[in-house]
Design goal:
This protein has helices spanning about 1-30, 50-60, 75-85, 85-95, 115-125, 160-165, 195-200, 220-235, 240-245, 265-285, and strands at about 35-40, 65-70, 105-110, 110-115, 140-145, 150-155, 175-180, 180-185, 205-210, 245-250. It is α/β, with parallel strands linked by helices. The strands form two sheets. Strands 1, 2, 5, 6, 7, 8, 9 and 10 form an eight-stranded mixed sheet that branches. The protein has a two-stranded antiparallel ribbon with strand order 3-4.
Length: about 325
């Protein structure tokens, strides 16, 4: 009886080895496929200007971007790039931008700023205005205020309302109404939309993260109190988007205030420096000997941020 069991065990082990060898041989024969790189841009209000510096480096070094996603300020930069605006022009507009370009003070129970001016600003900046017309796939995340869940916009429709919603910082901007829902800043539920880039077909995802101040000075008004509270909250809820990222680019913008539009050149340099640091890793993906699949060669973050283990998150379709 023991001999039968030994024979059966040896047979099953041999079959497993045979099956594994066949699978490995098939993978070795499969032609190398270039990666589909997705870029996910996080929020940061004025500090979003740093994203233009990241894009300038990627474009100058001919890094192909398959798709781009964004939340809050990142959604403006993502939409501009997807519509065909050059990174240098995004940088110039960002450095000239002021608060009044996108917001108008108002008295309302739901907030203090209306965002209708943002539509006019986007109309001047973008070259295309609908998701289906973009040069590359674009995704924008907003947050359903009542349900507390992310809302993903992609595929079709105009981009103005999704971007206004994604930038509607709670307590400051009025929520944006959409199909009976109230939408606010996408960063409330997804600080960096890495998982949405996967849904748009990316095999390798680069997340551009704009970190909050490590230790801020005492807030001067209610808006700074709310902003600092959200910064602290985000520092403790980063796992989901980091786990969907292959590489995290972290420009050093911690010393710049959320409304620091006057620091445009400094922000651009921070984005450029962080992207240059990450460039060798990205270029290694494009070499034929690079590992197949975006999640098999997870890489450390740049700019001092740490990488995280993989745990899938979820976004509604």
């Amino acid at each position: 009886m023991q001999a039968v069991r030994r024979f059966t065990g040896s047979l099953m082990s041999g079959l497993r080895r045979f099956s594994m060898n066949r699978r490995q041989a098939a993978e070795a024969r499969a032609p190398w496929q270039p990666p589909r790189i997705g870029l996910a841009l996080g929020g940061g209000f004025a500090r979003g200007i740093a994203h233009a510096g990241v894009l300038e480096v990627l474009e100058k070094n001919q890094i192909p971007i398959h798709c781009i996603t964004g939340v809050s300020a990142g959604s403006i930069v993502a939409a501009a790039y997807a519509s065909g605006v050059a990174p240098g022009e995004i940088a110039r507009v960002g450095c000239r931008m002021r608060f009044a370009d996108v917001g108008r003070w108002t008295l309302c129970r739901m907030g203090f700023l209306a965002s209708e001016r943002m539509k006019r600003f986007l109309g001047r900046l973008l070259k295309r205005y609908r998701f289906e017309d973009m040069r590359i796939p674009l995704g924008v995340i907003a947050t359903d205020l009542c349900a507390g869940r992310p809302v993903a916009f992609r595929s079709q429709g105009d981009v103005f309302l999704p971007i206004r919603a994604s930038c509607a910082y709670p307590g400051l901007f009025l929520p944006v109404e959409y199909e009976g829902r109230l939408l606010v800043d996408g960063a409330m539920t997804m600080e960096v939309p890495a998982l949405l880039a996967r849904k748009l077909g990316a095999t390798h995802v680069i997340s551009a993260f704009l970190p909050a101040q490590a230790e801020a000075r005492p807030p001067r008004n209610v808006f700074e109190v709310v902003n600092r509270c959200f910064q602290i909250m985000h520092q403790r809820t980063e796992d989901d988007w980091r786990e969907a990222s292959d590489l995290v680019i972290t420009p050093h913008v911690q010393s710049i205030q959320w409304d620091g539009f006057g620091c445009g050149p400094e922000l651009l340099k921070a984005g450029t420096d962080a992207a240059l640091e990450a460039l060798p890793v990205i270029q290694s993906w494009l070499a034929p000997q690079a590992p197949h699949g975006g999640l098999h060669g997870r890489l450390p973050a740049t700019g001092g941020a740490k990488a995280a283990a993989l745990t899938p998150g979820s976004i509604p379709a």
